[in-house]
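Example record used in the benchmark description.
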Amino acid sequence: MPALKICLKAGEKIYINGAVLEASHKMSFNILNNATFLLESHIMQAEDADTPFRQLYFIIQTMLIQPDNKDSILNIFHEHCEELKKHLENKTLIEGLDRIIAQVGRDRAFEALKSVRNLFDVEATVLKGTQSQAA
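Model output (structure tokens):
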């Protein structure tokens, strides 16, 4: 596996295998083996998880940040996905959700986060259309 170079600014945080590290100064380092990590810029705050797919992102992110609780968080993930499936009609969102479920099932949570982020605009468009119809 090739090394992955990470660059952090002073004060920036990174979450690696459940540990939170904060750079005291501008720095870079290489990750030489498999590690689960999230940069601070990828972290969604709970108050920003205000739509179904943003909630899904938050759940997956929590799996990465709290690996010791992965099993219970995985149960929440599956419950959320089942509930989402009941209400989705947009083909892009349905196919995206299926892809995300498969990625998480293959223990590829970081890829799943990227897939969820790619659906935020589609979800916003669908929700905007739903609100317009309700008005």
